[in-house]
Amino acid sequence: MELQGNGFIIRGWKKGDEVSLQKNADNPKVSACLMDRFPSPYTMEAAKSWVDFLIDQDPLINFAITINDEVIGGIGLEPREDVYRKTAVIGYWLSEELWGKGIMPEAVKLVTEYAFTYLDFIRIQASVYSKNPASMRVLEKAGYVKEGIMRKAVIKQGEILDEHLYAILK
User: Fold this and answer.
1) Alpha-carbon 104 to chain mean position
2) 3-state class (DSSP) for residue 157
3) In the chain, at which end, N or C, are there fewer CB atoms within 10 A of the end residue's CB?
4) Contact (CB, 8 A) for 165 and 125
């Protein structure tokens, strides 16, 4: 399965992605606004583990964003459980060299459409740390609406931050 963007492709992970994944994910500016489970530094061992973990996803919910088959970012859905089982959390990252070029708003739109068409979600949401207004703009451009701010909800790199909640409904 591939989703065609304007100059990029969103696809499942495959063997061989490790080198470009490690190269483009190993940037403190990329990890600064992601959860701590995103490794920093992003080692080759981390890249291999990630690709091995996602090789045979079913259903396909985590994707590589590629240009000329080089991984330049990632985007994924994390299904919630129990009473939230029709909701997914979307998360994403992009190589710093490609920030501000319109790739991520389009990628978020494509994955959101995929999720609503092929998966059983009725709501997709995202959390953005207060120091990341660019990601807030990404979500707004993709049609997500800010639903609220959880004050002092996150500790990232020793800094206490607000968390902005965005969502879109099917």
Assistant:
1) 9
2) coil
3) N
4) yes
What do you get for the CA distance between the two ends of the chain, in Å? Answer: 21
Please list the residues that pair with 156 across neighbouring strands.
159
pTM, whole model, 2 decimals?
0.96
Read off the pLDDT of residues 25-82 as tens digits, 9 standing for 90 and up.
Answer: 999 999 999 999 999 999 999 999 999 999 989 999 999 999 999 999 999 999 999 9
Residue 103, helix vs strand vs coil = helix
Cβ-contact 19, 10 below 8 angstroms: no
Q: Which amino acid is at 87?
A: T
Residues 118-154 have pLDDT tens digits of: 999 999 999 999 999 999 999 999 999 999 999 999 9
In whole angstroms, what is the distance from residue 132 CA to residue 137 CA?
A: 9
What does each C-alpha distance from 163 to 53, 95, 129, 167 come to in angstroms? 28, 23, 5, 13
Instruction: Check: CB of residue 124 under 8 Å from CB of residue 168.
Output: yes
